[in-house]
Design goal:
Elements lengths: L30 E5 L2 H8 L9 E4 L5 E7 L2 E7 L4 H13 L5 E11 L8 E12 L15 E3 L3 E2 L2 H13 L9 E10 L19 H8 L3 E5 L2 H10 L44 E12 L8 H21 L29
Helix pairs in contact: 2-5, 3-6
Amino acid sequence: MKDRIQDANFPKTEDGRVYHLGIRAGEVANRIITVGSVSRAELIAKTLDASPKLFSLYSERGFLTITGCYKSVPVSIVCIGMGAPNADFFIREVRECLYGDMLVIRLGSCGCLTDLPVGSLVLPASSVACTRNVDFDFTSRDPWEVPYRLSKPVSADPDLHRVLYDALEATRPPSLKNLVVSNTVNASTDSFYSSQGRQTSFQDHNASLIDHLKASVSDLATLEMETFWIFHLAASWRGVKQSSSAINSPLALSEIPSGTSEKVEVILPSLDKDTSSRPVIRAAAVHMVFASRSSQAFISPDQVNELEKWSGRGVLEALVRFGVAPERLHPISGSVWDPMEPSNPSKALL
């Protein structure tokens, strides 16, 4: 860490950069693809418009943010790695850097619990969390506790979910016959191993976990590690009142001029009684089936390349097709997608 941090409650630098992603207001767009792989982010970025020049920032905490335009609409690609904590960093810190609505589509890999073949695309309508119960005694098998806990489901935004499905079908390459399946349920876990039922040298007491999940959750199709947390935070956030001039809400409502490091006054706004004026977070997801847990098949590198190109373009199409009123978008002036401003790609100093 090289820059002085202003507030231990929500750490930011003097010029408004958030602690983990390293970005500040004007460097992330309202429409966002989030992925776990840097190579996937860079592949999708090749599809973006040549102008304005891409903004790219790789933080010392390992988050990559690429912002540009697709068909003249500002979009960001954010690589967050894996797991619930990184998804939490991503949603919370982007939200504090953004004025207006936030549209998030997760594009990630998954394991499949049904007979769908590898290479299928699965769009979950909802997601549950399956987490290891740390109060369970894994050494002696506690008779009073269960080893894993299952949450209630949280839904994707139904409108964004529908637009995403249509966009994926519309961008399907003629040579690809892969299935696109919607209205399933996903389970996000806190481990790639124990809470996904994989057998290792650890005493995880999970031999029957997959069967239990399938019996407990109707239409369960996929396992991965991030979607539930994105859906949960999107559904939980109820927005704040934002003035039309705000660009660093909801924590800081005064403008952070691009390219400066001057201190910014932080104002905590009150909730607006008129909920229609509040910004929203909409979230959806598409999962690429990399592994079949029933047949043990795993996708080939060539299939991955084809699938990422198709699904990446499909997600971009969904984001730009989804209408957002101009007054609910982050201001262009001073942003990295402002045609009058250089993007100044940089590395975060946090």
